[in-house]
């Protein structure tokens, strides 16, 4: 295994993910873990992550004592690099020259890390302090205009450090650098695959749930389906999948779940019609966070009720469903303020919006994974492409795509427009090019139009097609004009309340993907 030592913020998971991409197993451990405990895990290599702190800060996290004497190959990244340098007697200075974002790196010696890569390459930087002198015994192999020591190597001791972030995609040869470190410096072998990840997660879930029962919230989206498939594999009939029709779904969702999920996995499915309950709870509410809280709260109520019913149906009085399975992904955890030191952007209902008196233990087998990894996992579990490649759909559903109060009529209007947009994007063969395309109803806005010979006074919808790697950042998708024209024509012709179609051309940041 490779230990990724977490110095805080959002970096460690991405590094772990890149290590998995090199087909090497990894585990994230806190920087506070004693070296003896780390060694007990028998690591092949150690990677020290970046972090938000300055090595000069009072409470700057320290490298566990003795780490550099273990003989285990170690790579320090950004903050991890600086702590390594400081610990081993080099110099880290406040030069007053910060570097953020894309930076040109000049490689002076290929060494191990830069083997067979160009002498000039683009890297992603994010730092204030800089290393000005490498520790004794280290060779400086790369520099930038403002950072004289941007990468160092000491192959004899197996110690390596880089100021930039090899784990982010903007670093051109970052993945190669990690491969070089793992395969050549640490002697790891590329044997860890999705099959292993399926096994590992299945085993974990089995241990967590034991002989108890679980229910899973199926939303029709890929995350909950893959999470459920993992748990179904682990505990079989003791899992019941609950599909809550909260009335905030898109067209054809229940049918899709039955066709693409239940028939493949053989999972036990319970469909609950809770449309009235949700509409009632949402009436009069237009604040986005309030909507999220309400949907989260009502969801849990429906589950608790469904759980009691499952037990009763099985004639297992006295038993309880103790676990709730959720398809929470790593980016959801971060954006809900769950990563250490990360800010709460919005309360995704499957993480931040859960009520405090939750009756279930949470099972989240995808909590450490990114979306594209979840798709691979789903394929490995035998789910069909229609399921695995479905575009993400948020738990609170259409409720957060109606700007304004949610009503039955508005839901119907939005559902019709959304179905048209989806149909045309599929017809144009764009499903895999775009990450998702929310259609947003501006229910509190009216605009004047003319149709036939008459004046109309309807609502606009916004098309929000985005491209993204993991939903943490996104860009608006450059959809061909013809496709946009068809979508616009059809929506304004076929959906009575809508007389205007607009296109959102904002990236994330500054916008988020959903409007609420
Ligand atoms: P934002 O709008 O935060 O969306 O840029 C990022 C991704 O998350 C989805 N999303 C949610 N998913 N519960 C979910 O399960 C939620 O409350 C929620 N809010 C946003 C969104 O569709 C996008 O893919």
Automatic annotation (TrEMBL):
Its EC number is 6.3.5.2. It is an enzyme of class 6 (ligase). Pfam families: GATase (PF00117), GMP_synt_C (PF00958). The keyword Nucleotide-binding applies. InterPro entries: Class_I_gatase-like, GATASE, GMP_synth_C, GMP_synth_GATase, GMP_synthase, GMPS_ATP_PPase_dom, Rossmann-like_a/b/a_fold. Keywords: ATP-binding, Glutamine amidotransferase, GMP biosynthesis, Ligase, Nucleotide-binding, Purine biosynthesis. Pathway: Purine metabolism; GMP biosynthesis; GMP from XMP (L-Gln route): step 1/1. It catalyses: XMP + L-glutamine + ATP + H2O = GMP + L-glutamate + AMP + diphosphate + 2 H(+). The active site is at residues 78, 165, 167. ATP binds at residues 219-225. Residues 192-390 form the GMPS ATP-PPase domain. GO terms for molecular function: GMP synthase (glutamine-hydrolyzing) activity. The keyword Nucleotide-binding applies. Homodimer. Catalyzes the synthesis of GMP from XMP. This is GMP synthase [glutamine-hydrolyzing]. It comes from Lipingzhangella rawalii. The gene is guaA.
